[in-house]
């Protein structure tokens, strides 16, 4: 995730869309997806699903695999057919337990990718999400800065106490 | 964690029947296999339920995987609709299955979940009985290894179980199993019919309704299909006997509430130290009582 | 019509309500072998696809040698495809004689025997070659007339099921109805 690169370019690459959309209010995404479904034909290519995924990580000492825990995962894969017959596929896989959200974002994904009607709104939602993310990031950076320790003050030459 | 987390109304509760669709589908597949192989303990992935295993989770998973809005559910525990286990399971079904109606009447119910009893009133073809089973395998008392028990079941080899029954006869002149009486289904598999009294075993034989058995802790489901032979394991010269409720004079005791002499009776210890007998099936008892009252009024 | 999603439309084969109703039809069909059960109505599938949607998901394997299920539906099912010899579920065209050996399970695990979903032309009463069924779930005898089932199926079924408890279970399906023939059902009569 190279944020510097993606923040510079607009619109961001498709790989970043889900990240931004899921930072925006879910209700807005679902309302917009419902609006799109109102005049486009939306079909499930696979059935939207949600559940728990197991995350396996190697420990740092022996490199043995262990289960970090369960994470919520939801998944959707849809096809959107515009009134003029344009077809587009969209997908979403989220760390979230809301199947409906995954499906809504998959619809937005297809809409924006093929520039179907209403893709401007999807783009605006992308902006909202990005702003939220940047805000979060800025506040986190501020916290990090405020807790930064200046190590140069500690080293004044009298630290060789083991001799 | 996520400040934007909002659940839409459609997702802020469990789905119909509490179990997710994948769990239901698995149980449904297993039910069909269990019916196809009468009496065979079909393994399944018993789910965690919001109650302890041993409190009827096996029967409950059967019920929840098949119940629909058109169903009328009856839940009984030891024949009673009002005991704690029955009330809790019924409330759980009411909570998680909107539109399902519940009843205490055996004849109105389409699904009956039960613990330790088969209703007195004969079931019909359009009804399904889900029994809660604590210990599904009758061979466990003679063979500790499940792998060996599975082979014995497959071969229909119940010699050691018969030996156990024979030892009982030698020692006590009577087979001492009071409930969970081993019963042979369709001439092959022997099942543990769950802790129903001997009195109920003949009701499994050629029943009109499908009988399903769910053992949640032991992760097994088995079935006695309608119109299927269910024969208690006996010897040719020692016929199967059921509880007879005779008193010291050899007279059949009657229910002290409804007066019935053809139902399974519970023995009650009264406060004065004496004993009384009453129908275990409360719905049956109420029906008898209503009939007697009506009869008295018209006479 | 497209929102909420497919699985929430009550008349879709993927909706929980349809699946529950269709399962009850199947459970009744297995309880009373040979009796026709109507499948609940749905708009987006018929016959074998309905049965597959009710019983199959990514935990089972399915073989569809005669391609009776649309590729789109196969994807929605999310099933693992397998060879006919290993599959837990096999979907086949009843008008042709079977040319495969399904899994029969083992003595210790007879439930591993395959479930065969066979599409036939019609389950509606033809009395030309009635089959007579006996066994669990049948009071006395049950007769069954159907069209579009090759004789080879009954002969092969008898051979597959000769060693109870091992064997296969059959689900016969036309567009709207279903009949189950579990491995315990004995069949006599039939064409030719």
UniProtKB/TrEMBL annotation, chain A:
<dbReference type="GO" id="GO:0015716">
    <property type="term" value="P:organic phosphonate transport"/>
</dbReference>
<dbReference type="Pfam" id="PF06754">
    <property type="entry name" value="PhnG"/>
</dbReference>
<protein>
    <submittedName>
        <fullName>Phosphonate C-P lyase system protein PhnG</fullName>
    </submittedName>
</protein>
<dbReference type="GO" id="GO:0019634">
    <property type="term" value="P:organic phosphonate metabolic process"/>
</dbReference>
<dbReference type="GO" id="GO:0016829">
    <property type="term" value="F:lyase activity"/>
</dbReference>
<keyword id="KW-0456">Lyase</keyword>
<dbReference type="InterPro" id="IPR009609">
    <property type="entry name" value="Phosphonate_metab_PhnG"/>
</dbReference>
TrEMBL record, chain B:
<comment type="similarity">
    <text>Belongs to the PhnJ family.</text>
</comment>
<comment type="function">
    <text>Catalyzes the breakage of the C-P bond in alpha-D-ribose 1-methylphosphonate 5-phosphate (PRPn) forming alpha-D-ribose.</text>
</comment>
<dbReference type="InterPro" id="IPR010306">
    <property type="entry name" value="PhnJ"/>
</dbReference>
<dbReference type="GO" id="GO:0051539">
    <property type="term" value="F:4 iron, 4 sulfur cluster binding"/>
</dbReference>
<dbReference type="Pfam" id="PF06007">
    <property type="entry name" value="PhnJ"/>
</dbReference>
<keyword id="KW-0004">4Fe-4S</keyword>
<dbReference type="GO" id="GO:0046872">
    <property type="term" value="F:metal ion binding"/>
</dbReference>
<protein>
    <recommendedName>
        <fullName>Alpha-D-ribose 1-methylphosphonate 5-phosphate C-P lyase</fullName>
        <ecNumber>4.7.1.1</ecNumber>
    </recommendedName>
</protein>
<dbReference type="GO" id="GO:0019700">
    <property type="term" value="P:organic phosphonate catabolic process"/>
</dbReference>
<keyword id="KW-0479">Metal-binding</keyword>
<keyword id="KW-0456">Lyase</keyword>
<dbReference type="GO" id="GO:0098848">
    <property type="term" value="F:alpha-D-ribose 1-methylphosphonate 5-phosphate C-P-lyase activity"/>
</dbReference>
<keyword id="KW-0411">Iron-sulfur</keyword>
<keyword id="KW-0949">S-adenosyl-L-methionine</keyword>
<keyword id="KW-0408">Iron</keyword>
Automatic annotation (TrEMBL), chain C:
<keyword id="KW-0456">Lyase</keyword>
<dbReference type="GO" id="GO:0019634">
    <property type="term" value="P:organic phosphonate metabolic process"/>
</dbReference>
<dbReference type="InterPro" id="IPR038058">
    <property type="entry name" value="PhnH-like_sp"/>
</dbReference>
<protein>
    <submittedName>
        <fullName>Phosphonate C-P lyase system protein PhnH</fullName>
    </submittedName>
</protein>
<dbReference type="GO" id="GO:0016829">
    <property type="term" value="F:lyase activity"/>
</dbReference>
<dbReference type="Pfam" id="PF05845">
    <property type="entry name" value="PhnH"/>
</dbReference>
<dbReference type="InterPro" id="IPR008772">
    <property type="entry name" value="Phosphonate_metab_PhnH"/>
</dbReference>
């Amino acid at each position: 995730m190279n944020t510097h690169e993606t923040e510079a370019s607009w619109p961001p690459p498709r790989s970043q869309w889900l990240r931004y959309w899921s930072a925006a209010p879910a209700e807005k995404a679902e309302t917009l997806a419902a609006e799109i479904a109102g005049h486009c034909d939306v079909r499930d290519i696979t059935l939207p699903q949600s559940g728990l995924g197991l995350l396996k990580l190697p420990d740092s000492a022996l490199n043995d695999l262990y289960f970090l825990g369960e994470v919520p995962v939801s998944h959707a894969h849809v096809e959107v057919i515009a009134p003029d017959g344009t077809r587009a596929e969209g997908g979403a896989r989220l760390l979230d337990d809301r199947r409906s959200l995954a499906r809504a974002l998959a619809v937005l994904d297809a809409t924006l990718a093929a520039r179907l009607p209403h893709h401007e709104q999807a783009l605006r939602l992308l902006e909202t999400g990005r702003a939220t993310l940047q805000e979060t990031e800025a506040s986190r950076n501020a916290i990090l800065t405020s807790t930064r320790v200046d190590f140069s003050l500690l080293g004044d030459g009298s630290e060789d106490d083991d001799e | 964690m996520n400040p934007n987390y909002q659940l839409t109304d459609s997702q802020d509760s469990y789905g119909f029947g509490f179990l997710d669709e994948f769990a239901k589908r698995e149980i449904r597949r297993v039910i069909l296999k269990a019916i196809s192989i009468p009496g065979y303990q079909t393994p399944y992935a018993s789910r965690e339920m919001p109650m302890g295993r041993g409190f009827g989770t096996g029967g409950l998973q059967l019920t929840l995987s098949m119940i629909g809005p058109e169903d009328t559910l009856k839940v009984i525990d030891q024949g009673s609709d009002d005991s704690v286990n029955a009330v809790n399971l019924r409330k759980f079904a009411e909570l998680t299955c909107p539109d399902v109606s519940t009843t205490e009447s055996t004849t109105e119910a389409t699904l009956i979940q039960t613990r330790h009893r088969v209703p007195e009133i004969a079931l019909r073809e359009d009804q399904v009985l889900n029994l809660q089973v604590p210990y599904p395998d009758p061979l466990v008392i003679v063979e500790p290894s499940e792998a060996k028990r599975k082979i014995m079941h497959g071969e229909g080899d119940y010699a050691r179980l018969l030996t156990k029954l024979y030892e009982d006869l030698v020692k006590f002149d009577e087979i001492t199993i009071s409930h969970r009486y081993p019963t042979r289904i369709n001439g092959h598999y022997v099942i543990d019919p769950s802790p129903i009294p001997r009195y109920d075993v003949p009701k499994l034989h050629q029943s009109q309704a499908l009988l399903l058995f769910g053992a949640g802790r032991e992760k097994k489901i088995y079935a006695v299909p309608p119109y299927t032979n269910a024969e208690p394991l006996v010897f040719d010269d020692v016929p199967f006997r059921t509880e007879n409720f005779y008193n010291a004079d050899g007279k059949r005791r009657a229910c002290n509430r409804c007066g019935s002499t053809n139902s399974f009776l519970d023995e009650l210890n009264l406060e004065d130290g004496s004993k009384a007998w009453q129908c275990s099936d409360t719905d049956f008892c109420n029906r008898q009582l209503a009939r007697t009252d009506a009869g008295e009024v018209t006479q | 019509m497209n929102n909420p999603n497919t699985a929430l439309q009550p008349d879709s084969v993927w909706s929980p309500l349809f699946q529950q109703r269709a399962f009850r039809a199947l459970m009744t069909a297995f309880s009373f072998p040979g009796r026709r059960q109507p499948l609940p109505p749905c708009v987006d599938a018929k016959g074998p696809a309905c049965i597959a949607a009710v019983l199959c998901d990514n935990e089972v394997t399915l073989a569809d040698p005669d391609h009776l299920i649309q590729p789109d539906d196969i994807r929605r099912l999310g099933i693992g495809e397998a060879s006919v010899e290993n599959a837990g579920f096999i979907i086949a065209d009843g008008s042709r004689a079977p040319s495969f050996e399904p899994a029969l399970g083992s003595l210790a695990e007879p439930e591993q025997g395959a479930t065969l979903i066979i599409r036939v032309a019609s389950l509606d009463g033809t009395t030309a070659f009635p089959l007579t069924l006996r066994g669990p779930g049948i009071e006395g005898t049950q007769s069954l007339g159907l069209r579009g089932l090759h004789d080879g199926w009954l002969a092969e079924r008898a051979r597959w099921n000769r060693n109870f408890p091992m064997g296969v279970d059959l689900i016969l399906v036309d567009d709207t109805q279903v009949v189950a023939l579990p491995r315990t059902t004995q069949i006599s009569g039939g064409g030719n």
